[in-house]
Amino acid sequence: MSKRIIIDPVTRIEGHAKISVFLDDAGNVSDAEFHVVEFRGFEKFCEGRSFSEMPGITPRICGICPVSHLLASAKAGDAIMAVNIPPAADKLRRLMNLGQIVQSHALSFFHLSAPDFLLGWDAPAETRNVFGLIASNEGLARAGIRLRQFGQEIIEVLGGKKIHPAWAVPGGVRSALSAEGAAKIRAWLPEAHQTTQVALGLFKKVLETHERETQLYGNFPSLFMGLVAPDGTWEHHGGRLRFTDSSGSTIADQIEPRDYKTVIGESSEDGSYLKSPYYLPLGREDGIYRVGPLARLNVCSRMGVPKADEELRNFRSFGHGSVTSSFLYHYARLIEILASLEYIERALADPDLSSQDLRADAGINSLRGVGASEAPRGTLFHDYTVDRDGKLLKVNLIVATGQNNLAMNRTVAQIARHFLKGTEVTEPMLNRIEHGIRCYDPCLSCSTHAAGKMALHLQLVGPDGSVVKDVVRD
Amino acid sequence: MSFLDMDEFLIELAGKIEIVYSPIVDRKEYPEGVDLCLIEGAVCNEDNLEILHRIRKRTRVLVSFGDCAVTGNVPAIRNQLGAGNTTEVLQCAYIENAQDHKVLPRHEGIVPALLSRVVPVHEAVAVEYHLPGCPPPADRIRAVLEQVLSGTAPKLSGPQLKFG
Ligand code: SF4
User: Fold this and answer.
1) I want to staple A76 with a disulfide (CB 3.0 to 4.6 A). Which of A19, A382, A426, B145 is the partner?
2) Would an 8 Å CB–CB cutoff place A43 in contact with chain B?
3) How many domains does chain B have?
4) What distance in angstroms lies between residue A452's CA and the mean position of ligand 1's atoms?
5) What is the value of pTM for the model shown?
6) Is the pLDDT of residue A158 over 60?
């Protein structure tokens, strides 16, 4: 009889989730599924509200990258008013997004994932977390906490608040960068650089001893998608969509985000509140693509800043064409922190950031507006249809994590297949499976348009569908 | 996440308390005999309700943490759609906004059913304290924790009581 193992809740991710692992008669892993169990219904309950309220409402989908929703929403608003926002406003929005990439990636690396590969997969569950990291290496933990803080401070300096600043609005932003704010960021940059270099050094050592993980944690061919600049340079807020395949060839390029429906289809799932987007021309089975740091580094031609470009060259030596192991999301994340720091430094030298021309105003000039931005976890789309008064008739949100849903399922199955043998399930094995999910740093609140809590459940399911073993760890 | 905005105070905190159940630690089962629990988020589905009751039984002091927990906040906007709200929101997300495999998630024992009304935490179980804010800023969380650690009943006043 076959079995199902359930991990519930999946921890050290943002959001509530469970994992099921299916076993065949011989006790081998046949498949695995990742279930997201939270749903809030944002797309529906926003109907009837004004599009201008959306930058205030949608960030409440998520406390971890609210800035992404804020920016994508404001951008969709720009499109509805059919305005070009002042250059200063665009640069300020970009600066805030860079701050967010730093804080969110630092959180993923230091607070959530590093305990696994620094303390060990089989370190006691009670200490395998950021507090365990504090106990074993306070200096590193403190540096990581401060790196995240640095990113959060940028958001606060601009928006007045670390989480949910009411700052970007359709047409621009509310306020410029103050001289004190700029000075504070500038003074902190050298420390941020130093921590990033330490983390890069550490992770490269990890890679030397973790060849198995690199081979097995989500290592398979897939497509990759991200925004790129017109010349193919790495983009995070602007640009157009590019898809590449695992050989590294570009299969679709410079797609306007508002035309996303020509390349992205969405499919629902019975066992999860998380939908699965796929590359439409290839269909749901073959159209599996990944987004986020790994994808962005695969699709771009260059980072556009010297230190990160040097790292990118080293990163690419891990692939033939594209880098296909999801364990390397961690490395990609650190390279993006580095690039962000370099871009932040560049931005601070731009006199435009203190401009007072920050906002374009206009009425409703287009009945549909799409805003896209690279959230730390991948491309985010806000698509609004409004009436003549700007009231929302239809809302569609495609968030980063959903786009990795198919890849996360495959990753979990791959790890389970290699590390689970028979029904004897140990805690470190389960932790490895969960780590497969952590590589993607999923934000499940976002992905199901939920708000609030986070929390995995592993079930062993037999060929007849019965649950043989429910593993809830203590 | 706002909890993590206490930044280096976390290191100090690590020496004084033991965090037994949280999204950032790995224990899967809420233990018995917990002193204090910060509950974030509105109560939206059957799983939320179940764990909430378990937490209430096993915890001495519950703090309703953040505007969603205190008032229902943004998730509770769904209630305005009236009696059919759960069907409407699911229909919209999984049928109308899907191109392939248009099904409603309903796998029993896996995806929890939505409650017909989103409610704040205190409507489901009794709570000792409320900590407003969307999210509560780090200094406000720290103030409450410091009062609790020093053995006094937490009290917030003035601007510390602001929503939003
Ligand atoms: S930050 Fe705001 S929207 Fe998010 S859970 Fe807290 S109160 Fe709710």
Assistant:
1) A382
2) yes
3) 1
4) 6
5) 0.87
6) yes
